[in-house]
Every structure is written in structure tokens, then in C-alpha cells.
User: Which sequence fits this backbone?
């Protein structure tokens, strides 16, 4: 599958520029998460996330200083990610972070980062380095699950450790018409019985609900959440 074949040339240029900056410091750069999934599922997406194996700060500085089309040179951070502007989409940012060794942090590579994701459909990665630019990395079977429209958790304790994924699961089910794989369904029901969502603060729940209201299928997601919240 040629994942980048339908993308505009300007975006391909950005991805190649990021890969070249990684090459210049002997690092690895992979596009992963929402954007590769959106290409396969043919949906619009502005969420560009890059996982870096190597010196993140050096790589980002190299890109900002060498990519000629980048007008805004500011680099900001939200804690986990370094953020730079997308030169071809005003107001959008490119998020870059170190590849994690496990979901709690620590330096790793794209293989370990993939299994830090919550669901398999968010774990598809694409290499940006020149030697293998555009090559798909799919250790978690994301393409297979996307084809089958299956939502599969990559971590046994996902819903109890990060209950915000209860909301994310409902969003994906409504948005994409997914169904749970058997193990994930068992984990989901257990989290519901144990009311794992109660670990979230009122503000966190409010934020999740605000995100849902902005979705095209927000009403369907809210119906799923009524079951989740015991309404």
C-alpha cells in the first residue's frame, strides 16, 4: 500500500523535510497515530504527530532552521510534545515527541511506541527517513483491524489506568461504526461495572463531553455514553 500517494505535494515536502532533519542527526522519525489512520479511512485530519528515536530537541531545531517554507520559527511545548507550526495549514501544528519505551515514559523506538498507544487503529506508523520514506510499520495489526472495523485495546488495563479511553472508545464506535474485539469488550464491560470513569475529575469529564459535542456523530456518542455513565 502506498499510503502517501493521495497526499498533496506540500505535505509530502513537510514529511520529507522532517525525515531529512532526522537523518542529519542519525535519528529516526515516524508519522503515527491519527494521520496515518485518516489516510486509510479516507477522512480529513489535521492531527500530525511524529515520534522521534534520538535527540528530539536537536532534530526539531534542525528542521525549524533548515526548512525554507517554514515562516513561523517558534517552538513551544505542552509537556509531552514539542510543537511547531504547519507551514501549509495556518493555525495547525505538528507535534513531535520522543518514542516511548513504555506508556509511562522513557526513551524507546517506534516498536515500543506503537504498543504505548491505546487502540490498534491509532498505532499505524510510517517512516519519514530517506532510506525507507513512506514504508509502513504495523506491528499492532492496525491495517487488519481498520479493514474489519474492529476496536482493539493494546493494553489489558487501558480503561482502568486511563479512563478517558472509555470516552474515546465511544467516539470511535460512533464515528467509524466499529465493534469491539472480544477481549476489549470484556475489558470495557469490566471497566463499566467498576465505574472506572469516576476516577476522572468533573473538569476532565466536561472536557470529554465538549469534544463529543463537536463531533459529527455526537448524538450517537452521547447515547453510548449514557450506558457508560449508568444513565
Assistant:
Amino acid at each position: 500500500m502506498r499510503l502517501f500517494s493521495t497526499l498533496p505535494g506540500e505535505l509530502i515536502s513537510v514529511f520529507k523535510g522532517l525525515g531529512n532533519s532526522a537523518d542529519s542527526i542519525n535519528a529516526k522519525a515516524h508519522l503515527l497515530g491519527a494521520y496515518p489512520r485518516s489516510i486509510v479511512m479516507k477522512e480529513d485530519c489535521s492531527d500530525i504527530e511524529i515520534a522521534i528515536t534520538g535527540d528530539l530537541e536537536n532534530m526539531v531545531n534542525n528542521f525549524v532552521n533548515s526548512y525554507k517554507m517554514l515562516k513561523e520559527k517558534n517552538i513551544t511545548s505542552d509537556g509531552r510534545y514539542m510543537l511547531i507550526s504547519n507551514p501549509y495549514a495556518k493555525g495547525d501544528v505538528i507535534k513531535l515527541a520522543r518514542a516511548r519505551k513504555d506508556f509511562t515514559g522513557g526513551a524507546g523506538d517506534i516498536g515500543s511506541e506503537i504498543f504505548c498507544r491505546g487502540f490498534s487503529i491509532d498505532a499505524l506508523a510510517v517512516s519519514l527517513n530517506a532510506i525507507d520514506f513512506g514504508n509502513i510499520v504495523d506491528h499492532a495489526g492496525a491495517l487488519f483491524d481498520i479493514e474489519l472495523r474492529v476496536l482493539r485495546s493494546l493494553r489489558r488495563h487501558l480503561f482502568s489506568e486511563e479512563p478517558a479511553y472509555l470516552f474515546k472508545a465511544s467516539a470511535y464506535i460512533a464515528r467509524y461504526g466499529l465493534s469491539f474485539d472480544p477481549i476489549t469488550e470484556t475489558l470495557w464491560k469490566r471497566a463499566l461495572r467498576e465505574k472506572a470513569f469516576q476516577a476522572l475529575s468533573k473538569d476532565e469529564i466536561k472536557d470529554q463531553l465538549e469534544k463529543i459535542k463537536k463531533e459529527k456523530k455526537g448524538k450517537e456518542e452521547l447515547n453510548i455514553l449514557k450506558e457508560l455513565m449508568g444513565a
